[in-house]
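EI: anyone free to look at a 194-residue chain?
SC: sure, send it
EI:
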Amino acid sequence: MLFYSEARKPCGSIPDLAWKAWIDGAVPQELGEHEIRIVPPGHWLQFDGDTITPPINISARLLVTGIVATFTGKAMEHALIDASGNVLHKFHVKVSFEPGQTPLSLAEFESEADIRSYIKSRAAPVGLVLGRMRIPKIRFQNIFWPPSPDTWQKITTPDFCGAIKPEDLERQDLSAAWDPLWDESLLNRIGRKG
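SC: here you go
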C-alpha cells in the first residue's frame, strides 16, 4: 500500500513504516510474531478518485527472528585452589580467535526457546555471548527493506514481475542489511523519533 503527497506523488509505504517502527524500537526484540499498529505521518495520504481517504486502522504482523553468528577459538583456563580448604584464590581465562574467520557460521531462530536451546547445546568450557543488536533493515518479500539503490532499480523497472529469484535482486547474506538506502531522505519524510 502506497501513500501519496497532496500532489499525488508517492511518498512512502507500509514496509517503510514497519521498518521505522523496527529501528525506533517500537517492535520488541523478543523472537516471535508481534503485531504493531502503523500510523502514517499526517501528510501521507490515500486517494479514492479525487477524494482523500485517510486510513482508519493499519496494523502489521512482524516476525522477529534471531541470527546467531558462531566462530571458534582456543580457550585456556587456570585456577589456583588452596588444597587444604578447596578454596579458589585465583582464576584466569585466556581466549584467542583466529582473525578474519569468514564465513561465520550463522543459524536463524524464530523463538526464544529455540535460541536458548541452541546456545545450551553449544556448551563449551568457555563461551562468550555478546548480546543482541538490531540489524538496520527488515526483511520484506525476500529482500532487505528499505532496499539498496541497486535493488530498488531492479524492482522498479517496467519489466519487473516479482518472479525474479531473490539472489538476482541482492546478495543473500546478512551484510546486505548494511547496504545504503535507496532513498536517504526516507527517514526525514517519515519523521525521526525523538
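EI: The chain has five helices and twelve strands.
SC: 👍
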